[in-house]
Specification:
The chain is of the alpha+beta class. It is built from twelve helices and 15 strands. The chain has a five-stranded antiparallel β-sheet, with helices on both faces. The protein has a five-stranded antiparallel β-sheet with strand order 6-15-14-11-12. A five-stranded antiparallel β-sheet has the order 7-8-9-10-13.
């Protein structure tokens, strides 16, 4: 019998030694405290966390030991400050007392005075009701997640700065679009633009020249977000320059010349991207529309008699390296004719089931609303596409530009 008892005592001693060794070598701070948060046991990680010596911890309160900011500032004992009633650690112990249930992974973010210096700490702690030395006490396990939380805070700060920059970039991009209701004699203009992110790769504009002439363009850079937006702005600035649509003498340049110049100025090797574009000039006195397209979806011409014609003359996209020369096509307009330019984001607009808005729905809407003013047609198409999409976000930027020739 004595041999068995000795073996059990030896096993118990070895178990305790193992547990103490385990507790002193884990990263989490472990302590046992009573309902007044007076400390009765702890491990080495707890001492290291708050840089304390053993003799200054035992029988001291938690707030005194760890240098709780409230106890230091108010010069009061732990449990006697004005903030103790709000202490989440104390409230978890009360929960343990009432429900005898553990509390897991609570956050404790507070300033602690370590070596006399205030240090912001971010902890997660768990508590368990236990019996220790014949008394009801609490096992408290503290995980120091300060580094992780500070990294998250820094990432959030950087993200806010990025968001502000994107908001500024979106405002710049919006400023390059036409006026909401541009006043140009003999035509009516309406448009809608929705980037799939804060900024996008679509851009379009319309230029009113003297002598009843108008130039307009719409382009769609492959991809979206910041890289596509930067290229779209660069192309827009190019089109406003001497080699662009307006020319050096503020005279409209033929659309085919503009697009062939663009093809040389924006090779894929330089920008690692390509884009589609359609460029048009309109001579209001002659009712002559001339257009040139590089890989862009064909514009829809809704005639005043209700018929719909797709303007299908187009060459390869800008930047893909084709040696083909981009040509242009003249169209004679009648009073009341309407032209609609759009990007493929409209047709490839998808609903939650993955179905595309598609060409047919676009054509059906043009037929349905063909007798309405151009503003109402643009709004109707945009609203129908948005309703079709339901709650899903657009996969690509959506642009619609409508122009009605008034004669």
């Amino acid at each position: 019998g004595l041999s068995i008892m000795w073996t059990e005592l030896k096993n118990l001693k070895e178990s305790n030694e193992f547990l103490n060794l385990l507790l002193d070598n884990i990263n989490s701070a472990v302590l046992i405290a009573d309902e007044n948060l007076r400390i009765h046991q702890f491990n080495d990680s707890f001492l290291n966390l708050f840089d304390k010596a053993t003799e200054s911890v035992l029988e001291a309160t938690f707030g005194e030991t760890v240098g709780c900011v409230n106890a230091i500032i108010e010069n009061k004992a732990c449990g006697a400050t004005s903030q103790c009633s709000q202490c989440i650690l104390r409230s978890s112990l009360i929960h343990n007392l009432i429900d005898r249930a553990p509390v897991n992974n609570q956050s404790l973010n507070r300033v602690f005075y370590i070596k006399g210096e205030p240090v912001e700490k971010h902890f997660q702690f768990s508590t368990r009701p236990i019996t220790f030395q014949g008394r009801k006490m609490f096992l408290i396990i503290i995980y120091d997640v300060t580094d992780i939380e500070l990294q998250k805070i820094e990432l959030q700060r950087k993200q806010k700065r990025i968001d502000r920059d994107l908001e500024s970039a979106a405002a710049i991009q919006q400023s390059l679009l036409p006026d909401r209701s541009p006043r140009i004699e003999n035509i009516q203009v309406a448009w809608r633009f929705e980037p799939c992110e804060q900024i996008g790769g679509d851009i379009f504009n319309i230029h009113n020249m003297d002598e009843g002439k108008v130039g307009l363009y719409m382009l769609d850079v492959c991809g979206h977000g910041v890289p596509a937006a930067l290229i779209s702005v660069a192309v827009s600035q190019y089109l406003n320059g001497g080699d662009g649509l307006l020319g050096n003498n503020c005279e409209l340049v033929s659309p085919d010349i503009v697009l062939n110049r663009l093809d040389h100025a924006f090779p894929f090797e330089r920008f690692d991207s390509f884009f589609s574009i359609i460029c048009m000039t309109l001579d209001m006195n002659q009712g002559l529309l001339t257009y040139s397209s590089a890989g862009h979806p064909p514009p829809a011409l809704v005639h005043s008699n209700g018929s719909i014609e797709m303007l299908n003359c187009r060459g390869p996209s800008i930047g893909i390296g084709s040696e083909d020369t981009i040509s242009q096509q003249p169209i004679r307009l009648q009073t009341g004719d309407k032209i609609f330019l759009y990007t493929d984001g409209l047709l490839e607009n998808r609903n939650s089931a993955g179905a595309f808005f598609g060409k047919q729905r676009f054509y059906d809407n043009l037929k349905k609303y063909r007798n309405q003013p151009v503003q109402e047609i643009v709004e109707a198409i945009y609203a129908t596409a948005k309703e079709f999409r339901q709650e899903a976000k657009p996969d690509d930027d959506i642009s619609i530009l409508g122009v009605e020739y008034c004669g």
